[in-house]
Structure formats: structure tokens, C-alpha cells
Design brief:
CATH class: Alpha Beta
Helix content: 40-55%
Radius of gyration: 18 Å
CATH superfamily: Metal-dependent hydrolases
Number of strands: 11
Number of domains: 1
Order of helices and strands: EEHEHEHEEHHEHEHEHEHEHH
Number of helices: 11
CATH architecture: Alpha-Beta Barrel
Strand order of the largest sheet: 6-7-8-9-10-11
Shape: globular
Largest sheet: 6 strands, parallel
Length: about 300
């Protein structure tokens, strides 16, 4: 895996289009020039890697992402896999688990969508609110097979933070290396004890909706991270923003990708989270997790 020392955003989208179901153009994140400018700003602030978890169900565009990476100088790690049920293509319904695994395998070993851009992480594979559908189970089974065969890490989507414990139990049953698994969107639970139970199992967790205060206030995220540090789990947490809308970007008056560094990190410091933990979440933990995946 290509990795550059520096800050890493572990769960982002460079371009994504969910408008076919959301019925709103705002969810078609296709502002190339504006994204490049924001990524250049991130580079100036020390960001060197972004994990782009846009997969087959999100109208991904690997060449677009590669061009943004070239122009911004940020290393963007691309993914393979499928999202949650309502975004799954008919292919997932019709294909066998092994056929889904074959597709992921090809994208890791050969390239995504006929390009030479190789996927380096499986995700964000998702479950629905409080449940895993039959089609989602097929995706999770296929992901587990490829993970065990190739050593590729897995990153997940939990709808509003739900079903995280069950995801962990699924991976345990399938003998997946929990130290290679990230459970996503855990900050949306608002429940630090729920998160701590997952950390007890050995997975990584992501506070990856920073700035989305319509879901949870950032001050609550700060309090939960303080408690996680107090409990000694500072090696198992990542930060990101999961930006998916045009209105999130600065050119439309949104908070922008740099909000994490410019606003949330100072909030963490003011709230009593140590600089050591902040550095681990942004620099050291991502490096340890991703560099182990070197192929």
C-alpha cells in the first residue's frame, strides 16, 4: 500500500453520487475544481493521505479521484466493495457470494473498473438501521473471504451507528482478524459505552462524522473521546468527516474538509483531550493500520 507520513483522513469521499435515491442534486458531489482546492488546503495543513471509501454503489469514478490526487499531491487510497442495501445494484441480488468475492479480488489485484488503479481497502461495506439484510450478509461474507485470502483491511458503514456490535460478532464468527477491521460512524451512537464494548473486542472505531452536528454535537464527540482516552484505547481510534454533499464544501458556505483540523482539533484540546491522543488518531494509528496492509 502506498502511504505517505503525515495526517490521514480515514473515511472520506472525493466524489460520490447518491442523488438517485436522495432525489437531491446536493448529494451528487462532483465539484472537481473546488475539491482540488480544498485538498490543496489540506495538504498545506499536513494531510498526506485520504482513504476514499466510495464503492460500486455510489457512482464512483476512480480516474476522477486519481486526478484530484495528482493535482493536490495527496495520496488517495481507493476501495472495493458495496454499500448498504438500498444502494445495492441488482448484481448483488443475482451474484453468488463467491462471484462478489471474485469482483473484489480483481479490483484489488488488477484494478478498478478496467483501470490500473488497485483497491487497497474493502469498504465501506454497510448494514441497515438495526439490521443486516440478506444482500448485506452476502457482501459481508464475500468481504471476509477476500480479507482472509489477501490480508486486505475492512472498513464498515453502520447506519446511524447501529448494528456495530453485530458487525463485530459477524466478523468474529467468520474468523476475520479484528485488528484489521474498522467499525464506522460510531460517533453517531452518542453512547460511549456502546463504543467501548466494540473496542474491548479489538476492532478499530471511527469518529468519522465530525462536523455533522445535525446528528450529534461535536462537544459530545469530544466528551466520548475523552472517556475513550481515559480507558486506554487511544491506539484504536480514527478521525474523519465523511463529506458527501456539495453544501458541505466551502464554496457553498459549508464547513469544508479542513474543519476537522481548524475547528474540531482545537475543540478537543480545549475539552481536555491530549495532544498525544490527537496525534495518534490523525497520524500514528492510520499509519500502523494501513502500512500493515502493504501489498
Amino acid at each position: 500500500m502506498t502511504f505517505i507520513d503525515g495526517i490521514t483522513y480515514m473515511h472520506e469521499h472525493t466524489t460520490i453520487d447518491l442523488s438517485r435515491l436522495k432525489n437531491i442534486d446536493d448529494t451528487n458531489l462532483n465539484c472537481f475544481d473546488e475539491t482540488v482546492e480544498e485538498f490543496k488546503k489540506l495538504y498545506a495543513e499536513g494531510v498526506r493521505n485520504i482513504v476514499d471509501v466510495t464503492n460500486l454503489d455510489m457512482r464512483r469514478n476512480p480516474l476522477y479521484v486519481q486526478k484530484v490526487a495528482e493535482l493536490s499531491k495527496i495520496n488517495i487510497i481507493q476501495a472495493t466493495g458495496f454499500y448498504q442495501d438500498k444502494f445495492l445494484p441488482d448484481f448483488v441480488t443475482d451474484a453468488s457470494v463467491e462471484e462478489l468475492a471474485d469482483l473484489m479480488r480483481r479490483e484489488i489485484l488488477e484494478g478498478i473498473d478496467g483501470t490500473n488503479i488497485k483497491a487497497q481497502i474493502i469498504g465501506e461495506i454497510g448494514t441497515s438501521k438495526n439490521m443486516m439484510t440478506d444482500r448485506e450478509k452476502k457482501v459481508f461474507l464475500a468481504s471476509s473471504i477476500v480479507h482472509k485470502e489477501l490480508g486486505i483491511p475492512i472498513t464498515t458503514h453502520t447506519t446511524l451507528g447501529t448494528y456495530g456490535h453485530e458487525q463485530v460478532a459477524f466478523f468474529k464468527k467468520e474468523n476475520v482478524d479484528l485488528d484489521r477491521v474498522i467499525i464506522g460512524h460510531v460517533d453517531l451512537t452518542g453512547d460511549v459505552n456502546y463504543i467501548l464494548k466494540m473496542l474491548d473486542e479489538g476492532v478499530y472505531v471511527e469518529f468519522d462524522t465530525v462536523g455533522k452536528e445535525n446528528y450529534q454535537p461535536d462537544l459530545l464527540r469530544v466528551e466520548m473521546l475523552k472517556e475513550i482516552e481515559k480507558r486506554g484505547y487511544e491506539d484504536k481510534v480514527f478521525l474523519s468527516m465523511d463529506i458527501t454533499r456539495k453544501s458541505n464544501l466551502e464554496y457553498q458556505g459549508g464547513i469544508g474538509y479542513s474543519y476537522l483540523l481548524d475547528c474540531f482539533v482545537p475543540m478537543l484540546r480545549e475539552g481536555g483531550v491530549s495532544d498525544k491522543f490527537i496525534r495518534k488518531m490523525l497520524v500514528e494509528n492510520p499509519k500502523r493500520f494501513l502500512v500493515r496492509s502493504k501489498r
